[in-house]
Design a protein that fits this description.
Strand order of the largest sheet: 1-2-3-5-4-6-7-8-9
CATH class: Alpha Beta
Number of domains: 1
Strand content: 15-25%
Distance between the termini: 36 Å
Helix content: 25-40%
CATH topology: Rossmann fold
Radius of gyration: 19 Å
Number of helices: 11
Length: 337
């Protein structure tokens, strides 16, 4: 695949005008309040797992997510004595279609001295990897297979409202687990998880409860209309397919209105945390311009002017920097978490 999007010089200046709902902050703060109220009294439940690994401790975690629905996660931390303040934490959200997998797949961050909370993606876990164990008990309207159009008729019903709030509740869980340092939490995600941590960081910033840093790789869920205009691959192709069948202008307006509450190129403006992005300039799943649309406005509405960097991989598709990028993430975490 060739570089098909804007030249890099234009990408670095790209700030599209995306219609933003007037009640965006109210929507998310009310949604967060309802999620926390539903889970009132619910605390993370930890069960120690004997994995046969001697250098790490693994707990099977269940915490109350959106609507107090049980969400599964692995908590992996070094086996040695914790610092007096507790282990710094990396909270990771999962890419599209995947689940938390198995503990031995996630050892790097514990090896680097962090507690690592790997959060299941509700209703997913069957497309790749080693699976997930978290259901999504909420119904869905008529939609294209996948999650991007699930609940597309109303932002209150959309799948990603639940997914984003699960991310926030995962941070709440990390702040409540003994032995972890709730003042030093970083968010990590790739693709769907990358969009998820942008949203999670933004919602927590809106609430005045930011985490220490955000690390988002080739993020999905940014600048939906631009993505649909220039790529037809899934998951963005789910929107195109839906609109090719349900062709009324009135329905199209509903679709874009719903997605405006979920668009991470809008939500990124409300984040206050330092952020490390990555992008592949040959990415036909999450096009470079959609990633830069979020990166270029990071923190723009807050006045906080948070530190930000973007690692550009000119010859890479949606795999981005892969393992080469970990050293940059680790350096970012050591600086801010």
């Amino acid at each position: 695949m060739a570089q098909f999007d804007m030249p890099l010089e234009q990408l670095r200046e790209y700030r599209p005008v995306i219609a933003q709902p007037a009640d965006l902050e109210e929507f998310w703060l009310n949604s967060l309040a309802k999620a926390r109220t539903a889970a009132r009294g619910g605390t993370p439940i930890l069960h120690r797992v004997d994995t046969g690994l001697t250098a790490v401790i693994v707990d099977d975690v269940t915490f109350p997510g959106f609507a107090a629905d049980p969400v599964k996660a692995w908590l992996i931390r070094p086996a040695g004595e914790a610092p007096v303040s507790g282990w710094p934490v990396i909270v990771q959200l999962i890419p599209y279609g995947g689940g938390r997998g198995l503990p031995h797949e996630h050892l790097k961050w514990a090896a680097a001295g962090y507690a690592h909370l790997i959060v299941d993606a509700r209703g997913q876990g069957s497309h790749w990897g080693s699976g997930g164990e978290t259901g999504d008990p909420h119904g869905r309207s008529a939609s294209v297979g996948g999650w991007l159009t699930s609940g597309i008729d109303d932002p209150h019903h959309h799948y990603y409202r639940r997914y984003y709030l699960d991310g926030v509740r995962a941070v709440d869980a990390a702040r409540a687990i003994p032995g972890l340092d709730g003042t030093r939490i970083g968010l990590l995600g790739t693709s769907q998880g990358g969009g998820g941590v942008i949203a999670t960081g933004a919602i927590l910033s809106m609430a005045g409860e930011p985490v220490s840093a955000v690390m988002t790789n080739v993020p999905f869920l940014c600048n939906f209309q631009r993505a649909v205009q220039i790529v037809d691959s899934r998951p963005y192709g789910e929107i195109s397919q839906l609109l090719s069948v349900r062709r009324s202008p009135e329905f199209e307006e509903v679709v874009w209105h719903t997605l405006s509450y979920l668009d991470c190129a809008i939500l990124a403006k409300y984040a206050t945390e330092p952020a490390l992005f990555s992008v592949g300039l040959m990415d036909v799943t999450c096009p470079p311009s959609t990633v830069f649309a979020a990166y270029n406005v990071w923190g723009a509405e807050t006045g906080a002017n948070p530190d930000k960097e973007i690692s550009v991989y000119p010859y890479n598709n949606h795999e981005g920097g892969q393992e080469y990028h970990f050293s940059e993430e680790l350096a970012w975490a050591k600086q801010y978490i």
